[in-house]
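Data availability (excerpt). The following record was deposited with the supplementary files.
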Amino acid sequence: MTRPAAGGGRWVEVSPERLAGWLGGFAERHGETSSTYADDVVTVVAADASVAELHVPFPPLDGDPVTHALRNRRVGVLLVRLGGYAAGVFAGTTLVTSKVGSRQVHGRSAAGGQSQQRFARRRVGQARVALDAAADNAVRVLLPHVESLDAVVTGGERTAVETVLADRRLASLLPLVTSRLIDVPDPRLVVLQSTPALFRAVRIRLVDPENAD
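Predicted structure:
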């Protein structure tokens, strides 16, 4: 999938298994390439001035980009949206333990006055219960594995995720949390099972010659 990139260019996402072939195709289309390496970005510049910025998954970069991307990792995943949550541990692409759940959180009311105020208070209370349940779930699923995890990936609604991670019981997870929040729908088991395709993908910013710096 291709998306516009802030600051120019466009984003593509490439699975680790396809990365070597993608880089070969980039060189075939744009000419001989040279690369510069940083902990979190590999910049590939082609003969025609096209640029491919490979944003390294699970930095810092260890080895060449393809080998790094293909490495099997043990990854914790925490997905949270108001009313739904999921946590799991993956060994490579295999989900080895997980638990999902939900708590009802009503939408906004169109009523006014005191009715709206009562509804708003009820909704705040429901949201608090839902996020507490999501934190309890993360404690049960992720904490027993924290010593073996290479990283923790989060997804869903940013504010909800941040609220859950603010739970003191989850402090030991924080150094492992990656910077990217993956975009997922309501956290159900099938959604959790599909996350390796998102968190393993190499995000590449492509800049055409006319837009290159």
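Summary of structural features: The CA atoms of residues 93 and 196 lie 6 Å apart.
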